[in-house]
Amino acid sequence: MEILEGFRQRTAGQVCVLGHDPAAAGGAWRDRVGVVLQESEPEPGLSVRECLAMYAGFYRAPRDIDQTIALVGLTGKAGALDTRLSGGRRLVVLPTGTLDSLTAPDLVVVPGSDNPMPTTQ
User: ∠114-1-34 over CA atoms, to 5°?
Assistant: First the structure.
């Protein structure tokens, strides 16, 4: 999976993801690929807004933080500590839940899955 995501060099053969070799692809390609973490926990001491701002920093052109908060239905909880949210609300703030909200990747790589999932037709 790490080879497909561009995080590990392959030792042989060829790889092409979304028309590019992940090992040589640049930032524009990385913006098109979403990686779902196998495990994640809330960031202790950070509010919903602060968590989303931190995760948005992983992308070159993320959606506006306030728009993202509204999109996931947490406008009234934007200043609340992430660890104080209910389990379901906490899930949408974790990197796994915010992936499609902060950016709209063309491909989502899910650990433990046999196939990456295209998000567009």
Answer: 90
